[in-house]
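To fix ideas, we reproduce below a protein record of this kind.
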Amino acid sequence: MDLNADLGEGFGRWTLTDDEALLACVTSANVACGFHAGDASVMRRVCDSAAARGVRIGAQVSYRDLAGFGRRAMDVPGAELAAEVAYQIGALRVFAEAAGSRVSYVKPHGALYNRTVRDDEQAAAVIEGVRLAGGGLTVLGLPGSRLLARARAAGLPAVEEAFADRAYTPQGTLVPRAEPGAVVGDAAEVVRRSVGFAVDRSVTGADGRRIPVDARSLCVHGDTPGAAALARQVRAALEEAGVAVRAFA
């Protein structure tokens, strides 16, 4: 199982994620590319650290929404969104390559991630942006999403992702953050769910029923309080359960 986290979610003097501590235990880093968080200095620093630790670098692309942290619904024309996705990937690629590494995959953030689960046009625009940026980049997304379907149709590698610290609807999508219980705050429960994703390929949904979730990557949100300690617990529990924690192929 790959273990990923959202990193570089700062801006200027403002810092949100404990990047160094998270990089010590994750295998893939979803690096903010400046549209919901991050700036040139932050991207460079995270890429340098990730490359030094052998952590895979991914571009976490977003709607242009610094004030809302990329979590507000937006309507962006497809051509514009494709260009903005390519722009973000290109910005991160400069720093990844300067650090002796490369951008290996793309993962939408926040509102864009959730929108591309069902919205085929927005999903197609993201994939067009990935293609415009060049290279056969892997696309990370929710199982059954239009995003992954579009990625496969375009001949791009697609990897299904699960969320250790988010609640699931009976349909296998994420409970909206505005609803109670959307974020799982109990560390023991997050760890238990993480092992369930890896071993049983399922999770208990918000209605109490088991939901199949076949994923190769597991996300711990970097902006969750105590995220680094939580990620360490998740990794230790996975390894104790006999799960090899490594970047997805």
About this structure: Strands lie at 2-7, 28-32, 56-61, 103-108, 138-141, 158-163, 202-204, 210-212, 217-220.
